[in-house]
Amino acid sequence: MKVVNTKIIGIVGSARIGGNTEILTRIALEEAEKEGAETELITLAEKEIKPCDACLSCRQTGKCHIKDDLPPILEKMLAAEGIILASPVYFGSASPKIKALIDRSGYSSRGKDGRRPFENKVGGPIVVARRAGQNFTYAQLMFFFMITGMIVPGSTYWNIAFGREKGEVTKDEEGVRTVRNFGKKLAWLAKKIAS
Q: What is the pTM of this model?
């Protein structure tokens, strides 16, 4: 039997280190590890991720000209079989850093040859809300997976949980259960596609 090695990364777009979004992402990655995947958590909290300036020079060069912390993260995204994008709700939408990461990685990963390096990778979003805005934020993150041709596994519900103060999200039993199932399905699907 062929041994299939898969790498799944979880990118946390929250400014809070150790906050609810990070907690949920760690839970999903733990489940992926139980299924045999290698995992890595990447937090954007202390990283500089500047917004896209729409110059489109990356379409010619294959690289973004902006100097910040995105390039090594993009390399990890391109090398991984699975990607989780996680964000808290900020005024009804995704955090600025995760949105900047989505915009720039989506553009700069495509060269003038039309390549689609994320195509057929697996992934999905995780969203944490205090009270509302979760559906719009979930959709924002989902658009990245859809436009890049990635495959998103289902779970038992949408990968959303509620909480404000650090650790509060763990009280949302259905949210945690959904994210656990998502992490398990993500690893299972990544292995199936890689085999």
A: 0.96
